[in-house]
Every structure is written in C-alpha cells, then in structure tokens.
Amino acid sequence: MPVYTVRGSEYDDDDDDLPDTLPPPSPPPQAENATDAEPNDKTSPVADPVVDPVVDPGEVAITRQSKLLYNWAELNLESISHKGEFLLRAFLITHLPCCLLSYPDRSHCDSWFSVDGADDESEPTRICAIGPGEKQVGVAIQSSKVRCLMFFDPADDRLIIINTMPKTLYCKSARTGATLDIPFNGTAVMAEDEWELSTGWNACHIQCKVLGRKPLRITQDPGTKRSSAAENHVAKRTRRPVGEDFNRVTIPRGSFPNNPLLHIVRGDAVHVETGVKDYTLKLLEPVADMRLESSFKAKHSRISGKIVVVKIIKPNSRRKESAVQAIETWIAEFLVHSSLGSHHAIVPYLGSDARFNALFTEYIDAKPLTYHVKDQSNQEFNDGIYRAWRILCDIASALSFLHSKKIIHGGIQLANILFHPVRGAVLANFSLSFKEGERPVSNGLPWYQPPQFLEQMDAHSTSMDMWALGVVMLWALSKIPMPESAKHWVVEHIHLEKAATDVVRKAETRMEDWLATVQAGSNTLQEEGEQMGELGEMAGLIGALVQQREQERIDAATLVEELAKFDLKS
C-alpha cells in the first residue's frame, strides 16, 4: 500500500487518524479544541497533471494582506452577509499578492468582505468567501509562492486541493498540528478545519477555514415513503399544519455520506438556496442508476414548461482521486454540452449545478436503442430498415454539427442514441466528449473503438465517431449482434505499459475478433445491397463508415451530403 509523509511521521492509507506528531517549530499559530482530520486527508500524486489556468490577474483580483496571521476565533465572521450565487464552503485570507479565479470559467472571484476583529482598535480584515455554484466546481489560486486548485467535494464536507506549482505545498492543520506535504500535481484533502498553506517554513501564504455544507430543505408529498437508508439520516420532521399537503424535512449538514441528490425519492422536492438564484427540483421518477452516474426526471422551478432530466456524475469510491475524476468528468461534459447551441438531433442542454455534479437536459420522450429490440433473447433492432435509415440521417446530421465545432462525441453507442418513430433519433450523453487536439477523460465502450486503437492509444479524431456510427448501423440492419452482448475487453490493456503479456494479448485478440465480426457484417451488407431496392445506397455508405484505414473513412459532412440526395419515406 502507498505510504505518505507527514511532518515528523509516516502513516499509511488505511490509518484511521492522522498521527499526533507535531511538525518542527514554525511561525503559524495552532488552533485548539479540534478533532482529528479524516482518514482520507493524505496526499498522493495524480496520473495526469492539471493544467494551471494562465490569465491576466487584473487589479480587482489582486489582494495583499499584512504578514501577521489572524486568529479566526477573533474575527466576526457572522457579519459576512453572503448573498452570492454559490454555497459558502470556505474563507480565505491571503498574505501575498494573489489572484483568485473561479474554476473552470476562470472569472475573477469578487466575494471579498471586510471583517472586524474582536476589538474596536483592530483594522478590518479582508476575507474572500468561496464555494461551488451552478458553473463553479472550485477556485484556482495563483501567486508567486502558491499555485493550486481547490475543488469542492459535493459528497463531503471537505476541499480537495491539487498543487499545480513545481514545488512542494505544505498544508498545516490547526486541529492536529500535522502538515500535509503535497508534491507537484499531487492531491490532498482539507477537512472541515482551519488550515495554513505555504511553500516553506518561514511564512504562511494563505489561511483557509473550511466550512461544512449548507443544510438542504426537502418537501415531501404525502404518502411518499423514503428508503430506509434515507430515513436513518433525515432530521426530525416538523408537524404539518392542517390543510398543508406536504411534509418539510431538513437534511442537516453531514446527514448523507455523499451527494444528497442521490438520496431523494419520487415526490421529494429539494430546495437549493443561495440567496440569489434559489430553485427547487421535484423528482418525478428515476431514469437510470449506474456505477458512475444517476439520472431522474424532474421539474425545475426556474425552467418552466419543460420536464428536465437531472444527471449526476458519481465517483466510483470515496477516495479523493475518484472525487477529482468525477469533477473532471462533470467539467468536460459541461464545457462541451453548454457550448453547443441548438440542433434537432441533439438533446438540449438546459443548465447545470456544480454543487451536486449535476447537469440538466430536456427530457426526450424516446428510449435508447438498447430498448428497441425484438426480445431479450433476440437482441435485433425491431423497427425495420426505413427507421434504420432515419437513425443514420439524424445522427449523421448531429455529428456533422459537432465536428464543424471541432468537437468529438467520443461515446457513440446504442445507449446514447434515443429513438422515437415520430421524432427520430437524438444524440445524448456528452460525458466522453472533447475538443479536437485535447485528451478525453476516458475511452468509451470497447466494441465501438476504431481499428487505429490497436496501433495507437491516443488516436482520437472525428473518424472514431464515424466508425462507431457504422457499428450502430450494422446492428440496426441485423448484420452484427448487439455489441454489448459480445465478449468484453479493456481497451487500455492493449497499450498498458509493463503489463503481463497474456493481459495485453487477451485484449488484442478480443478486439481483433470483434473487428473481424464488424468487417464480415459490412461485407454481407455490401453483397445484399442490390436486394435492398431504393435503400441499396445505404449499404455503400455504411461500408464507408467502417473502413479499416481512417483516412478512407467517410466524414460526417460528406455523409450528410450523400444522404440528402435521397428522399425516402417510411
């Protein structure tokens, strides 16, 4: 197991508490009467470096405090009347010229307050209030001494800090006296506590007071039964006045061990209050609950006249690395989907809330292609050749739209294509999408990966979307089995460094076998093209989608032009 260093001691990743070992003498004072930090409060390097935002700080964003440290207990923090568009999660006091930016939009943080001290003679202290908002997952700190990202964990009363400066960052806990040593691109957890950040032992550059999450208020329809897990955490309900048709339930801070939106049930209405843009979400019914995401239909008080789908990105564990991965996935999907604009074959983006790793899209009355099967034993497309043509036309148009904006969807598969015989096909789920020239957060399902992945793992281009569409169409025309029913493999294993030969070979063999299945299906389709009548041209176009060489694969714009030459009616 990994071993991490704490000033004066070592501890492993399974320890229940940080050690009581005190660091060497240093100027920053220690707070008293505090509990130990959480067992997750340790540092470790992350696989990929986080790019530090480069901006022109501007006068508004720069602040400078005196070199004297402040005792949080002597500051009148209750005087801060926060009415920002985020949920308050921490206070910062800077002791050097510093630029604070909201992340990922990189706008300047402007929630600065002057706070009086314990006596009338002390000068007011400048404090920055920070927290997650609808589009803000964290804060980027830039200075000559400290550069880091602070992410607000939606699932816990903690901040996850990533050191983006090529020198060690020290975070000292006032409760335990222990100091976290965070290397370049390393991560650590700052629990609800008072912290001192520095890159040396002769000065404290930033003071940070981490706060707990704000309680949520839930109203509940009468007769709605909460799950037993939720009931164990819900605070005592207030008595309902005569004639009132709902129960009020306050979800206290720390009541739910993770994201509170994952614990509401049908009929619950969650009230999100910031003081500026409050809103209410009422859960209508669940849509899906998977390992890395959950979704449900809801009514949003600020999105009138529409049913929304609330999608929540989930970490796969309680580890800080998993929390960062979920946040980065949310960022990637938010940045892509919110920038698209309108297209008839793309699920409309309606909003987001980084406080819960949530995205809001319009509800489409259509089911994924995985549901359009004859039966579970015969997983063939059940809607016929004309509707398969409609799917091809709609998704080709959507991809042409995306590719014109230099965006790769990265997740073309049956589950991400919604279909209704009247509306047609609609492309959904942008969690794997990215801009050309950038790296995706992760790869999609193995059966939709193009042949070039056998040679080069980072061979990401718009042609990968076209190959995946070809796989979808071969299934829709019953020329290959449902991809998800074939043997699984891990794409990353093909290029896994220092991996056992049998692991690599197993992945290579299964991918080669599947590619042979796709090629055989395409060959069969070409042979049958003459018997398809006016739809015979579709065989050639699908064959162009699954060309082995990506340079010979048809692009989306050309495919749309070719499809426009036909006027077929189902």
TrEMBL record:
Query: Which part of the chain is the Protein kinase domain?
Result: 281-566
Which residues lie within the region annotated Disordered?
A: 1-53
The molecular function terms in GO held by this entry are: ATP binding; protein serine/threonine kinase activity
SUPFAM superfamilies registered for this protein in UniProt = Protein kinase-like (PK-like)
A single Pfam family it belongs to is Pkinase
Q: Compositional bias (Pro residues) at which positions?
A: 21-30
Gene3D superfamilies assigned: Transferase(Phosphotransferase) domain 1 (1.10.510.10)
Among InterPro entries, the record links this protein to: Kinase-like_dom_sf (IPR011009), Prot_kinase_dom (IPR000719)
PANTHER family hit by this protein: INHIBITOR OF NUCLEAR FACTOR KAPPA-B KINASE EPSILON SUBUNIT HOMOLOG 1-RELATED, SERINE/THREONINE-PROTEIN KINASE SBK1
Q: What is this protein called?
A: Protein kinase domain-containing protein
Organism, scientific name: Xylaria arbuscula
